[in-house]
Each structure stands twice: as structure tokens, then as C-alpha cells.
């Protein structure tokens, strides 16, 4: 994991994202969405591709790099059952991970400040709730390529085309997060 001087690697972005939240993040979905938003503002060498997936834009590369960071001992992964009988994974920087993060922060101070701002905004507006972050990522993914403002019903329809269920309330929750992140390029009309 070499350190570059202009762009981060996805693995480095993940470590800095966890660091920006005090060294711990709950949920693979949360890491996926924070990485999705950060990728929009921080250049990445390996530029992970995000495609429609159940919880919104998803990158297999981000998932692979996250698992690799655990295998390399830079992140500790733990799991607990949720009320839906799923597993909620938590990620925490290890001693080795903290050491790498110190180096990354010294080399990538500006990028880290941007990532910290994104994580802080998402934490403030949603408590890093994975469902809310998913709504925001879905709305952004749908609206980013639109040539004109979309109506709420058009966003719902586009979401359905991607296999996503989202209602107008979810869209509004997502828009609040996107507004805080300054990622709403065009208003979504009623």
C-alpha cells in the first residue's frame, strides 16, 4: 500500500474515513456510502466504479479493499446480529491502522479534511444511519445524470428501474444529507 502524492487509493480512503469518525464505523453500507460521497470530492487513483445494488450505489472494489484491510490487520472487524436477523459489521482501526493513518494524514491533509467534513456532515444529518445514507446515495446516483430537475415521482420511478424501493419521504431524507454535502446540483421538484 504505497502512498502517492496526489490521489488516494481506495484502501487509503477507507482508512481515512474510519479515522475521520474517531477510528470506528458501524456498517459496510455506511462505509460504502461515505466512500461514494468522498469519491465525488477526493480524486482516487483506482477510481472504484459504483453500480446500482440493493442499498444504493455499491462498489465491489470498496468491498474487496475493506476485506483486505481487515486481512492485513489494519482494521478490526466485529459483527453483531440486528433486529432483522442480519449481521451489522463494525470496523475499528488497529494499532497498525492508526500508524498508517498518521502517515496518510501528514501526506494527504487536504483530502483528510475533505473526508472529515463529509463524515461529519453525514453524522450530523443522519447519525451515520445506513438507511438514510442509502437514500442520499440513491437520490444522487439517479439525479447526477439528469438533464433537468426531476420530480419526486420521477426519482421514485428511476429508483424502481434500478431495483430500489424509495418513497418521497426517503427522497426528502436523502436530499437533506445531499444538501449538507453540497451535492445537490439541481433541485428536485415536487
Topology:
Elements: H1 10-20, E1 24-26, H2 28-39, E2 51-53, E3 56-58, H3 60-71, E4 75-81, E5 87-93, H4 95-107, H5 109-126, H6 130-143, H7 152-161, H8 168-180
Antiparallel strand pairs: 1-5, 2-3, 4-5
Précis, in short:
The chain has a single domain (10-180), classed as Orthogonal Bundle (Arc Repressor Mutant, subunit A). The protein is 54% helix and 12% strand.
Which range does the strand content fall in?
Answer: 5-15%
Flag low-confidence runs: none
Q: Compute the gyration radius: what is it?
A: 16 Å
General shape: globular
Order of helices and strands: HEHEEHEEHHHHH
Q: Structural class, please?
A: alpha+beta
Structural overview:
The chain has helices at 10-20, 28-39, 60-71, 95-107, 109-126, 130-143, 152-161, 168-180; strands at 24-26, 51-53, 56-58, 75-81, 87-93. It is of the alpha+beta class. It has a single domain (10-180), classed as Winged helix-like DNA-binding domain superfamily/Winged helix DNA-binding domain (Arc Repressor Mutant, subunit A), CATH 1.10.10.10. It starts with 9 loop residues before the first helix and ends in a 10-residue tail after the last helix. The strands form two sheets. Strands 1-5-4 form a three-stranded antiparallel beta sheet. A two-stranded antiparallel sheet has the order 2-3.
